[in-house]
Design brief:
The complex is a heterodimer of chains A (309) and B (382). By secondary structure, chain A is of the alpha/beta class. Chain A is built from 11 helices and 14 strands. Chain A folds into 2 domains: 2-220, P-loop containing nucleotide triphosphate hydrolases (Rossmann fold, 3-Layer(aba) Sandwich); 224-292, YebC, transcriptional regulation domain (Alpha-Beta Plaits), CATH 3.30.70.980. In chain A, helix 3 crosses helix 4 and helix 5 (135-147) packs parallel to helix 6 (165-180). Chain B folds into 2 domains: 2-40 and 175-381, no CATH class; 49-158, abc type-2 transporter like domain (abc type-2 transporter like fold, 3-Layer(aba) Sandwich), CATH 3.40.1710. A 4-stranded mixed beta sheet of chain B has the order 2-1-3-4, with helices on one face. Chain B has helices spanning 2-12, 15-39, 59-69, 81-89, 103-109, 124-144, 149-158, 178-205, 210-215, 221-257, 261-285, 289-306, 318-324, 328-342, 350-381; strands at residues 49-54, 73-76, 95-99, 115-118. Helix content of chain B is 69%, strand content 5%. Chain B is elongated. At the A-B interface, helix 3 of A face helix 1, helix 8 and helix 9 of B. Chain B: The chain crosses the membrane at residues 15-36, 185-205, 226-251, 263-282, 294-311, 353-375. Chain B: This is ABC transporter permease.
């Protein structure tokens, strides 16, 4: 569906995209994950031919993407990072307007608009003007405007920024529904939980490059961390901390404010080994957590920094 | 026609505002027409009660009293200070002239002035003073020519008022037709409505990431622009048609009988082009409704006050008129003034009329260029 090869985009001396590659297959919910300024929006703008790039190529639906390739543009739905709706038009008129940029048949459009209203859960706000909508409803309207014409490819650029959890869940459910209806989805976000929750494949970006691509399982398998064990309210001496480091599977130990964080490689019984050690030494402890690696761990291990930095 | 329809939908949201401006325009026109209507009455001499204290009792003094008495009500007074004050206090007289002894020698042959007293705060004194000056100057000319006191008095008595014939080229018999006022105030309507409505629409289309969103859509950019221009044109021409139809309904025969009627329409169309291009310029720059309101008021009222819309051009000071030449409305009003003055003989000032209209079109073209430059700059900044 989308094939990007060696894309380079510079803003003066700043390299926004540095030989960026991407391959999105039909029917996927493809996540572009990266911290702010990693080049996600630049990549999207290049895909939509809103920005000229310095090198490389972008093919969408097998065709070279260009500002005047309206055949391809007709099949793309866009949900921009900033809400792009008319404050002067009500909810229904806004959706109808954006739909009419793609669908000229009035009767068909009427059906599509109604469907989009239902899809975004805006039935009670048909006549409301954007200024009267909450942040979450506004984002839903933004999405409805982008997807009303039922495009084959939907590009959503951080659609859940500054949205309450209820609206966020609704938006994420909606995206999955669009995927079920047959659309290919490119979803950018810096919220790793969202990407993890809905995306079938993920590309992690940093400094304008894709640093890892795959399913979430594939990405997690790329790193050393298999499990992170956290034990609260535990008092350890220096010698005991050294012994923990020597336990099987343990490769990193952090002890701060009576909280012990142990990173273990993939393998069985990591938690049991640690708890047995504490029991043998009769060291009291409080709550215990065991977490599987997240995309943040993947990002952390590859780049040496947190995804949210 | 998505963009065209969106323009119309947003414009429709301003329906009440347009109606309000139309209301203000018609009210202002009617009000000024009413005031101006009083101006077109005939001139007539005003009669002032004038008291005369004649200490001379000569022929020349009698001649002066008779001359003043031609247009005023003359009351002969005694030389009693108290009774004179009383007459002035009770407004029996508004002005008292004291003719001194040897009036002919001292005031006609000599340079001495007459002693006068008038009611404070009235302008009638100036009026009578002018008449006295007239008589004295007349008498001095005759005296210099060797006429005697009696002969001068007789000549003054025989003197008739000069008749002045005013030439009127407009074909309006000296009056100002009502449609002249209507067309004079038109810039207020065009500037306010177009700048506000178009500004409101263009502000909407330029907000946030909407231009980017539109650029990424399936409608080519050129078509979007064309649909936008078409919608603006339809809105502007609708306004012009409403204004023209209203003029035809209100002043039908009077307006159509004037051979310059067509030029009024052409001039107003040139003004429409200027207003539309100015509206585009404002719409490209403005970002908030409050700013739009402010700019529309400054532009609309500012140009109307500076360029002879609300204050007649003849009353504007030289520097203001010079500054106003840099504004398009000045040229619209100049053409209107020529059309009002020359009316049926407008052919005699055709060069000035065509220049005025041409300058307006040039203003419109310049504003279009400025708008394109501003839009380009804005696009680069995104």
């Amino acid at each position: 569906m989308i094939k990007i090869e060696n894309l380079v985009k510079r803003y003066g001396n700043t390299v926004a995209l540095d030989h960026f590659n991407l391959n999105v297959k039909e029917g996927e919910i493809f996540g572009l994950l990266g911290p702010n300024g990693s080049g996600k929006t630049t990549a999207i703008n290049c895909m939509l031919a809103l920005l000229k790039f310095d090198r490389g190529s972008i093919k969408i639906m097998g065709e070279e993407m260009a500002p005047d390739n309206y055949r391809v543009k007709r099949q793309i739905g866009i949900v921009m990072q900033d809400v792009a709706v008319f404050e002067e038009l009500n909810v229904r008129d806004n959706i109808d307007y954006f739909c009419s940029l793609y669908v000229s048949d009035k009767g068909k459009r009427k059906e599509l608009v109604e469907e989009a209203i239902r899809f975004a859960g805006l039935e009670d706000y048909r006549k409301a003007y954007p200024k009267k909508l909450s942040g979450g409803l506004l984002r839903r309207l933004n999405i409805a405007c982008g997807v009303a014409h039922k495009p084959r490819l939907i590009i959503l650029d951080e659609p859940t920024v500054a949205v309450d959890p209820q609206s966020r869940n609704r938006i994420l459910e909606g995206i999955c529904e669009l995927s079920r209806q047959g659309s290919t989805i490119v979803y950018t976000s810096h919220y790793m939980e969202e990407v993890e929750q809905i995306c079938t494949r993920i590309a992690i970006m940093d400094h304008g490059r894709e640093i890892a691509v795959g399913t979430k399982e594939e990405l997690k398998s790329m790193i050393k961390t298999g499990e992170t064990v956290t034990i609260e309210a535990v008092i350890l001496a220096g010698e005991e901390l050294e012994r923990v480091r020597e336990l099987p599977g343990v490769y990193e130990v952090r002890y701060e404010g009576q909280t012990l964080t142990v990173k273990c490689t993939k393998g069985k019984h990591n938690l049991i080994h640690i708890l047995n050690f504490l029991n043998e030494r009769e060291i009291p402890f409080g709550r215990v957590f065991s977490e599987l690696p997240t995309l943040n761990d993947v990002f952390l291990e590859i780049t040496g920094k947190q995804l949210r930095d | 026609m998505a963009v065209f329809k969106a323009y119309m939908k947003i414009a429709r949201k301003n329906f009440w505002m347009i109606l309000m401006y139309l209301g203000i325009f018609f009210a202002v026109t009617a009000m000024f027409q009413m005031f101006a209507g009083e101006e077109t009455q005939d001139y007539s001499a005003r009669s002032v009660p004038v008291g005369i204290v004649d200490d001379d009792r000569g022929e020349a003094a009698a001649g002066l009293a008779a001359y003043i008495g031609k247009t005023n009500e003359v009351v002969m007074l005694d030389k009693d200070r108290e009774s004179m004050q009383e007459d002035l206090f009770y407004r029996n007289v508004e002005y008292i002239v004291r003719i001194p002894e040897n009036f002919f020698e001292t005031c006609i042959l000599g340079e001495e002035s007459l002693k006068v007293t008038s009611v404070p705060g009235t302008y009638s004194g100036h009026y009578v003073e002018q008449q006295i000056d007239n008589f004295v100057n007349f008498a001095r000319v005759y005296a210099a020519a060797g006429f005697s006191e009696e002969e001068i008095a007789d000549a003054a008595a025989d003197r008739e008022s000069a008749s002045v014939e005013l030439m009127d080229f407009s074909g309006n018999e000296g009056g100002t037709p009502a449609y002249v006022f209507y067309y004079r105030y038109l810039p207020y309507l065009f500037l306010s409505v177009l700048c506000y409505v178009m500004g409101y629409i263009l502000m909407g289309f330029g907000r946030g990431s909407l231009p980017q969103r539109m650029k990424a859509s399936a409608v080519p950019a050129r078509r979007q622009s064309l649909e936008g221009f078409a919608a603006s044109g339809v809105l502007a021409i609708s306004l012009w048609l409403i204004a023209t139809l209203a003029a035809l309904v209100l002043y039908s025969r009077e307006f159509l009988n004037n051979s310059a009627a067509g030029w009024y329409l052409i001039n107003s169309f040139a003004l429409l082009l200027v207003s539309l291009s100015l509206a585009y310029f404002v719409g490209t720059l403005v970002k908030t409704s409050d700013a739009l309101n402010g700019i529309v008021n400054i532009l609309g009222l500012g140009m109307c006050f500076l360029c002879g819309v609300f204050v007649e051009m003849d009353y504007l000071s030289g520097p203001v008129r010079k500054a106003a030449q840099f504004l398009p409305v000045y040229w619209y009003e100049s053409v209107n003034t020529l059309l009002a003055r020359y009316g049926d003989s407008a052919g005699n000032v055709m060069t000035q009329i065509l220049s005025g209209i041409g300058i307006q079109v040039l203003f419109a073209a310049a504003l279009v260029c400025l708008t394109l430059a501003a839009a380009k700059r804005k696009e680069r900044a995104v």
